[in-house]
Specification:
The protein has helices at residues 42-48, 86-100, 104-120, 134-147, 170-184, 204-216, 230-240, 245-250, 269-278, 286-291, 299-305, 323-336, 346-353, 355-360, 388-394, 399-409, and strands at residues 2-10, 22-32, 35-41, 53-64, 66-72, 123-129, 150-154, 156-157, 191-196, 221-226, 259-263, 281-284, 309-311, 378-381, 415-419. Strands 5, 6, 7, 8, 9, 10, 11, 12 and 13 form a nine-stranded parallel sheet that branches. A six-stranded mixed sheet has the order 3-2-1-4-14-15. It is α/β, with parallel strands linked by helices. α4 (134-147) runs parallel beside α5, α5 packs parallel to α6 (204-216) and α15 runs antiparallel to α16. β11 (259-263), α9 and β12 form a beta-alpha-beta unit. The structure holds zinc ion (ZN). Zinc ion binds at residues 70, 72, 129, 225, 262, 314.
Length: 429
């Protein structure tokens, strides 16, 4: 049993529906076997659990571990390809790197880089867009199991319009996905996600094989991209001859409560209505949307229709693993939308980066906030003494203000410790 002492901020109640920031200035969290068994004012907690080790985390912020709902395994080294719109960026920056993951030793190294990147950013749970090669995805799951991050991922499949080595067939996509799911779905913290790259590169037969796999792997997730870029959307409309992008997935029964679709920057009202009816979630990836010039995310319209939204880093189009940066960019985006923007407060940013992601991934009974009964998935933000973040935090007017400072000034360099199920992730030195 361990008692963690510090300033704890979390969002057990959804701030989009009236919840407020829960802030405990000098809290004690009692953790046994990875579960939070008591929480309250430190002096009360210490008196109730005498003789147990106290880990002193004062002088920073103890937050829930971040939940990244959209991050690409093969694109760690593609970060920073600035100046291109989506389809050109894919062609020149992302897909050549994706092709390199056919080499298993290369893939193993990138898997280590990905998991290290997540943990260093304070991310403890992630929906990871996998690779086009089954052995690479196998290595990703193995590395996730070794490090301890809660990973939901799968084989990325496509059967047209990409470079040849990234293409598969409907049968092979099913067989390889099934084998990976049998090995990894539900093994430790790993879970399987059926992952067609996007409708642009996936024909109906391939999407039909995705439906079969999703039906055959109980509890599996579905993830893909949607409505990111004008040229992409126009091409998908031409290829399928359907009214909306969402229908390309929905007609194959791929849209449901365990579905997470990335971007949805250019959503129609009809699509938002269907997404809400299906209970599907959207991964909002603000730095990626800005870097590729994809557009400003219509968060108010998602809220109005009741479509759940969480944050994704979307590296390599996104500009790094930090969900602090994504939160800040989400705020910028809404500000730039003027009256159509959603007035995001710091509490919304924390929710989007933690509990909203846990909900999207069906993990809110276990993680997303630091309530009694939840797993101790947490991060300690501790700015370097004398840094601007440190100065700002010490002079914050209150918890909301401290959180605003964290999203404005915090970086991956300020993440001093991370816990998953009460243990520090096993990064290699
Ligand atoms: Zn993506």
């Amino acid at each position: 049993m361990t008692i963690y002492r510090g300033t704890v901020l979390d969002t057990p109640e959804d701030p989009f529906t009236g919840g407020t920031l829960r802030a405990d200035g000098d809290a004690g969290l009692v953790v046994t076997d990875g579960t939070i068994v008591d929480r309250g004012p430190f002096e009360r907690v210490r008196a109730a659990h005498p003789g147990h080790q106290v880990v002193d985390l004062r002088g920073g912020l103890l937050l829930p571990g971040f939940v990244d709902t959209h991050v690409h395994f093969p694109q760690v080294r593609a970060i920073g390809g600035l100046g291109l719109p989506l389809l050109d960026w894919l062609e020149r920056c992302a897909l050549p790197e994706e092709a390199r993951l056919s080499d298993t030793s290369y893939a193993a190294t990138v898997a280590r880089e990905l998991l290290a990147g997540l943990v260093q950013a304070g991310t403890t749970t992630a929906l990871v867009f996998g690779a086009h090669f089954a052995p690479a995805v196998d290595l990703l799951f193995a590395e996730a199991a070794r490090v301890g991050v809660r990973v939901t991922s799968g084989l990325v499949v496509s059967d047209r319009l990409l470079r040849d080595e990234l293409l598969t067939s409907p049968q092979r996509a099913y067989d390889e996905g099934r084998a990976l799911a049998e090995r990894w779905h539900g093994a430790g913290r790993n879970r399987y996600a059926v992952t067609p790259r996007f409708s642009l590169s996936c024909g109906n037969e391939l999407l039909e094989s995705c439906r079969a796999l999703l039906g055959d792997v109980e509890g599996a997730y579905f993830t893909s991209h949607i409505n990111e870029n004008g040229r992409e959307i126009a091409t998908v409309a031409q290829l399928f001859g359907l009214e909306t992008y969402l229908e390309t997935y929905d007609r194959h029964e791929l849209v449901g409560p365990r579905s997470v679709l990335a971007h949805n920057v250019h959503a129609t009202d009809a699509e938002l209505k269907v997404l809400a009816e299906r209970g599907a979630s959207v991964a909002h990836c603000p730095t990626s949307n800005a870097a590729l010039g994809s557009g400003l995310f219509p968060l108010s319209r998602h809220r109005a229709y009741g479509v759940p939204v969480a944050l994704g880093s979307d590296i390599g189009a996104g500009t790094g693993f930090s969900l602090l940066k994504e939160g800040l960019q989400a705020y910028f985006g809404q500000q730039l939308l003027g009256e159509q923007g959603y007035p995001l407060a710091p509490v919304h940013l924390l929710h989007l980066a933690t509990s909203a992601g846990a909900q999207a991934l069906g993990l809110s009974a276990e993680v997303g906030d630091l309530s009694v009964g939840k797993r101790f998935d947490a991060q300690w933000l501790r700015p370097r003494s004398g840094s601007t973040f440190d100065v700002a935090l010490r002079h914050a007017a209150g918890p909301e203000d401290a959180l605003a400072k964290a999203f404005t000034l915090g970086t991956t360099g300020d993440v001093a410790s991370v816990w998953i199920d009460g243990d520090n992730p096993a990064l290699s030195s």
